[in-house]
Amino acid sequence: MAAEFDTLAEWTAQVATDLGSSFKIPAACRGSGSLAVLDWLIDELHLSHGGSLLDCGAGMGGPAAYAVRQRSVRPLLVEPERGACRAARSLFGHPVVRASALALPVGDDSFDAAWSLGVLCTVPDQLALLTELRRVVRPTGRIGLLVFVARSSEPFPHPDGNHFPTEARLLSLVEKAGLGIEDWRGTEEMAGPTPEWQSRVEKVTAELADRHRGQRAWQLAERQSQLIGQLLADSTVTGELLTLRRR
Ligand SMILES: C[S@@+](CC[C@H](N)C(=O)[O-])C[C@H]1O[C@@H](n2cnc3c(N)ncnc32)[C@H](O)[C@@H]1O
């Protein structure tokens, strides 16, 4: 996990900076692979100009930067990996705090909205993550999640550090956290990346491979990403978007 979200993040930021500013957001969106997903969340969370948004497990900060571009939100990025924090700061300059979702370093009821994209399944204590999100968002605010869900409870080969909940488990976690589901959408129903976005992602990926394929961190991250790609391709795991509110 550290290879993917720490070392590789700094390498990715360097590549995106070298390629030019139009590469930064596509390079820095690691969980949410398409703008249709982010546009849906931005609408469903009612993000408004000047509103505050907590991005929990923000990675390199691409999704938050896109939300700033679309709605001029005021983001705070929370991310535990040092390399990803540095990458997010250097790419976009938004405020970043190095911390875990399990103990968010912010006060109760302090954000208009929060999202956590592709993070829940990387965290063993998933109830703690949801409980923390509930704590920090104002009572009327909304929480957005992108979760990779296991379609069956049968065991399957997991990429290191991933804990994909089943749908039943996710529903039970949401309930236990005192949250209610406002909307739920499968990412498969949404438009995929545009050709322009896809070509930028591919250019970044190819450049990263050219620069770093001999290094262990690149090889580990590549193996991880291929395994997740395979699980999604054969629908062992699916991407699910949820919007939540306090019950
Ligand atoms: C698949 S990436 C998604 C990054 C970003 N949300 C995006 O969509 O581009 C998962 C992120 O979760 C972060 N993460 C892992 N454990 C975490 C924790 N306990 N608290 C917060 N973030 C965590 C990882 O460091 C990584 O940046």
Descriptive account of the structure:
- By secondary structure, the protein is of the alpha/beta class.
- It has one domain: Rossmann fold, CATH 3.40.50.
- The chain contains nine helices and seven strands, in the order αααβαβαββαβαβααβ.
- It has a seven-stranded mixed beta sheet with strand order 3-2-1-4-5-7-6, with helices on both faces.
- Helix 1 packs across helix 8.
- The longest helix has 18 residues.
- The protein is globular, with a radius of gyration of 17 Å.
- It binds S-adenosylmethionine.
- The site of S-adenosylmethionine has 23 residues, from helix 4.
- This is Class I SAM-dependent methyltransferase.
- InterPro entries: Methyltransf_11 (IPR013216), SAM-dependent_MTases_sf (IPR029063).
- Keywords: Methyltransferase, Transferase.
Observed structural traits:
Rossmann fold, alpha/beta, binds S-adenosylmethionine, globular, about 250 residues, 9 helices, methyltransferase, 7-stranded mixed sheet
Short description:
By secondary structure, the chain is an alpha/beta fold.
Number of domains: 1
CATH fold description: Rossmann fold
Alpha-carbon distance between the termini?
34 Å
Q: Write down the CATH class.
A: Alpha Beta
Provide the structure class.
alpha/beta
Shape: globular
Count the E strands.
7
Q: Give helix and strand order, one letter per element, not per position.
A: HHHEHEHEEHEHEHHE
List the total number of helices: 9
Report helical residue fraction.
40-55%
| CATH-level-2 architecture | 3-Layer(aba) Sandwich
Give the distinct bound molecules. Answer: S-adenosylmethionine
The average pLDDT value, as a whole number, equals: 95
- Unreliable stretches covering 5 or more consecutive residues: none
Main-sheet strand order equals 3-2-1-4-5-7-6
Radius of gyration: 17 Å
GO molecular function: S-adenosylmethionine-dependent methyltransferase activity
InterPro entries: Methyltransf_11, SAM-dependent_MTases_sf
Pfam families: Methyltransf_11
Protein name: Class I SAM-dependent methyltransferase
